[in-house]
Amino acid sequence: VFIDTNIFQQAIRSANPDASDFLSLKAFLNKKYKKTGRIPQLIVTDQLIDEYYRSEKSSMIKAREKAASAPCETADVRELLLKKQVSKLSKQEKKLLELSQSIADAHAEGKDNRLKKFDKEMARVKTTIDEILSKGKVLMCSESVFSAAEMRAKRGMHPRPNKSGKDSEIDDVQIGDAINWELLQHHTDGDE
User: Fold this and answer.
1) Going by C-beta distance under 8 Å and a sequence separation of 6 or more, which residues neighbour residue 46?
2) Gap between the Cα atoms of 92 and 120, Å rounded
């Protein structure tokens, strides 16, 4: 079983993290096939591990910021009322200001609760992904694999080059995907 880096990265980029799919994957990887009695083998590449952990922290920070930035619906009303001098507010406007402040306070409390929930679930996602990746068979990129991936990229073979609008140069190609492709191909061509 091989899972592309993007699947793992997508989970840590979410403002609404959910570990359930990865917990299911973890259970699947620990379950024996009935017919063969074998446990499925997760294959990870050094390229996958490098890509994932290189972007993990910044992705998680951005996701948390996104989760924290949900707007307060009463902010505009409060801002308009506060622009007036409080002594010039009518009784209705003062009550509206008090109500909007109560709603803003509840929103802030909700935001704190939302971030606590986010942190807890993101920790579950991260821990589960770490456990999954640690159990995988790691395929290491050799010079011959890298050369084959580079050649694949230069020829525009699968995986396809990026659509950057430039001439097809090696910089325009997702070399990481080509490395993973070649590692998997070399692994399956062997006697394992």
Assistant:
1) 138, 139, 140, 141
2) 42
Rg over alpha carbons for the chain, rounded to the nearest Å, is: 25
pLDDT band of residue 171 (cuts 50, 70, 90) is very low
pLDDT tens column, 7-52? 888 888 887 788 888 888 888 888 877 777 778 888 899 999 998 9
d(CA 152, CA 158): 7
The whole-model pTM stands at 0.66
Q: What spatial distance separates the first Cα and last Cα of the chain, rounded to whole Å? A: 14
User: How far is Cα 64 from Cα 59, in angstroms, rounded to an integer?
Assistant: 9
Q: For residues 158 and 180, what is the distance between their CA atoms, to the nearest angstrom? A: 11
